[in-house]
Amino acid sequence: MAEVLVYVDHVDGAVRKPTLELLTLARRIGEPVAVALGGGAADTAATLAEHGTVKVLTHDAAEYAEYLVVPKVDALQVAYERVSPAAVLVPSSAEGKEIAARLALRIGSGIITDAIDLEAGDEGPVATQSVFAASFVTKSRVSKGTPVITVKPNSAAVEAAPAAGTVEALAVSFSEKATGTKITGRTARESTGRPELTEAAIVLSGGRGVGGAENFALIETLADSLGAAVGASRAAVDAGWYPHTNQVGQTGKSVSPQLYIASGISGAIQHRAGMQTSKTIVAINKDAEAPIFDLVDYGVVGDLFEVVPQLTEEIKAR
Ligand code: FAD
């Protein structure tokens, strides 16, 4: 069976969920060989083997933490040349997309970004993408070189598949460009204790209807009762009620959770662009004619200041 190279996103050896989802998809098109880089890389092996990885290629060097993405691209290219895979899969984070694009350029391959599904095809893996503000779903495949594909978080359910994975060290010598851009400082974001917006299984967003920064506490309380992340429409962000890092939409983040609850959001096309691929969509809006009701699975016509606290109470009681 052909081998598929999977780039591992991890934090000090803890594998992030989008990589485990990627492994589920990778197994549809071949045998996953993972590439884990940086501090704790070897510690990823046990988790990766539980999810069907037949081999983990690891390398650690200070350069991965000290410089922007090029050292990682250098290492992924070494792994690519060693394995000659049928495809290279990378999680669709901002960093992942840069790594994938640089690798594709170096190896002369076509690239597909932000896939939401993958299947095996006669002429190589077929990727599904959601395009034009999620108005269309396309299926495409790379027609030149080894397919390099980035896959959005929440595109597949994580499935365990124990494998007898081996761990091998990669020998990487960095290119001249690897040390071109040095990271001069890192500022940790204050932790809210909530899941990362783009990876969360449940996202609750508030819009102009929330009416003020202080009222976002309503959304946050409901979010915490569900273990959800909190998002906001651009109107709420532009009003200074919620941070820009939490904006959902065309000029914000793209989310694709199992459940998306929009409160006080009208459903403008630019907002839909960032959430329309959510599996189940619920809207709470006092205007029965609001466009968001055209795309919801469940709609509540009502005042969010009445509905949201009732919902929170009900969920806490269970
Ligand atoms: P509104 O459209 O004002 O809707 C507020 C809704 O709240 C209404 O439907 C109202 O009925 C309801 N409401 C009011 N009070 C209550 C209540 N008490 N209870 C229940 N419901 C209530 N928007 C984004 O969100 N993300 C983007 O990334 C984005 N990018 C953009 C990029 C461009 C180039 C442009 C031009 C626009 C972009 N926008 C984006 C803006 C977008 O067009 C809309 O203006 C915005 O999404 C509206 O936000 P909203 O739904 O919160 O506000």
Automatic annotation (TrEMBL):
The electron transfer flavoprotein serves as a specific electron acceptor for other dehydrogenases. It transfers the electrons to the main respiratory chain via ETF-ubiquinone oxidoreductase (ETF dehydrogenase). The keyword Transport applies. Residues 4-187 form the Electron transfer flavoprotein alpha/beta-subunit N-terminal domain. The keyword Flavoprotein applies. One of its GO terms (molecular function) is electron transfer activity. Coiled coil: none annotated. Binds 1 FAD per dimer. This is Electron transfer flavoprotein alpha subunit. It comes from Streptomyces iranensis. One of its GO terms (biological process) is fatty acid beta-oxidation using acyl-CoA dehydrogenase. Keywords: Electron transport, FAD, Flavoprotein, Transport. Its cofactor is FAD. FAD binds at residues 208, 233-234, 247-251, 264-271, 285. It comes from the Bacteria. Heterodimer of an alpha and a beta subunit. Belongs to the ETF alpha-subunit/FixB family. The lineage of its organism: Bacteria, Bacillati, Actinomycetota, Actinomycetes, Kitasatosporales. PROSITE patterns: ETF_ALPHA.
